[in-house]
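Residues pack. Consider this:
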Amino acid sequence: MRCAGVTLLLAGCFAFFHVAESQIMSIDLGHEFFKVALMRQGVPLEIVLNTHSKRKTTTAVSFFDAVRTFGDDALSHQGKDPAKVPMFFHSSLGKNYTAADIDDGGKWWSDFGLGDKFYSYQLGYNATRGVPTFKIGDDEVELEEVLASVFFFAKKIADDSGEGKVINVRDLVVTMPSDAMLRQRQAIAAASEIAGLRLLTLVHETSAFAVQRAVDFSVESGSIEYALYYNMGARKTEVTVVRLEARSAGMVKGKTAPVVSVVGSALDYRLGGHLMDLKIAEVMLKRFQDKYPKLADAVVKDPRALRKLLAQAQKSKAMLSSNKMAPFIVESLHADTDFQATIKREEFEEMCSDMLEILTEPIEKALASANITIADIAHVEVIGGAWRVPKVQQLLSDYIEKGKGEKVHLGQHLNGEEGGALGAALVAANSSSSFRVKKIFFSDNTQHEYAVQISALSGEWEKNVTVLYPAGTALGSKKKLNFDSSEDFAVKLFENGILLTEYTVTGLKELLEGKWKDYNLTGAPKVSATVPLDGSGLIEFKNPTATVEESYWVNFTKEKPKKNATNATNATKDENSTADSKVDEKADEKADEKDEDTADEKADEK
């Protein structure tokens, strides 16, 4: 019976592995839009279309109705009750604030960066965690829960893309800004878990685009080139500098694979396409108030009117990319009053002059981080929606041409609606044995410094702060702590010199006073622990182990070896043989002497 049971169990396991297929869903998580890519075994990597057959989905969750809605469906509720449609909240994930920070004009609103006119939220406060929450009616929703809803919807559209085949995505890859701190990374990991997904890794957004570019472009073997990626999105601008190389891969002679190494990154949250939209919307709102002064106060309190202004601002900005003038028309903006105006490209550029003046600052910071100059850059790629603004292209081209002394073409090889999600999926697939994809050697680094400090729980002593990972350390590194301690202790983890968390390690004192009390120890227990910085930029204190050495006497009696009987017999036989040979030799000698004497006697007789 037992053997039969084992056989059935194994058969069931093999059947399970045959049916299950590895699947990876990657999400390029933008502030305004998110994109989803799906990788399945035997199927090419592809972008998943949403329910409206679009490649990008608005990053919005609506709690307006009893059943949550997402994307463009949620956006329609934003004009009815904006407080119930959280948007553009990524930058606040994992950050700590005080209760006063969430008040009007507080620090949270400053970090949010979009003002409270077009995005008016009702915020609560979780005093235990020190983080803001969204007030939805009588409930308060954590930011991680809102993000988990986005992940859940992304999983749904991925599962529905099978065209009749059953898809049940479990593994997830998410892009994020390269300057994200540990708490922000942990918040995304928590949101993944809430959504029922297993987070494989986090990938820096612009780095994912660089990996996707390596699919179609690689340098010659033995050469090194630098590429600069200028990613101007809706809410931020990120610049990443990568070093491009090629190295041998596989067993085939001469076969190489691209090597993509991130050497510098910088972000600026003062630059973004949606910030330009808000500039236009603010100006047009002022024009409407000037034209209809009786409606001036009421229109500001009408969320639907504000939503219409912002939507038209986005359309007009897009038109100005190819035209020098664009109409600004909103039907029934407020109180059945239509609004018509025009905006010139020069006016738009004047509105955004504060952004255009600092357009190249993140480039300079990224180059300084990489310890190179613009003259060392061989390739420039522009991605994101806001680079299409003509003035942005002009300023970037002029800056690069001035630094290199020659005109450099701004590459547009990557699709901003696909490249990030596809590149992130490739990063995960390259570290998995379940997929056969083009080999790309990829490495990234952290922008933050991490240090630890060991101290007594009583506070009587503390060791010096030890920097484990300076800024610029490669992700995926692992360090080990080794120190002596005769009591329980605490490990403080610092990020950029700021105390992030404290680990309390107990049990050592109890062992010394109990089980190890009668041991003749040679010294204090030696404690070792690992502090890995994984590929997602997550760091933690793991597996503390204490080792002691005991000194004691051991009596050891060495017995005298006994003679072997067989060897003794053989030795006796050898001795007898030797004696017999000696007797024979003596007998022969005597015989020879006797013969000689006889011969002499006969000679004398003669």
Summary: Residues 122 and 208 are 35 Å apart (CA to CA). The two ends are 113 Å apart (CA to CA). Confidence is low (pLDDT under 50) at residues 1-20, 596-606. The longest strand covers residues 256-268.
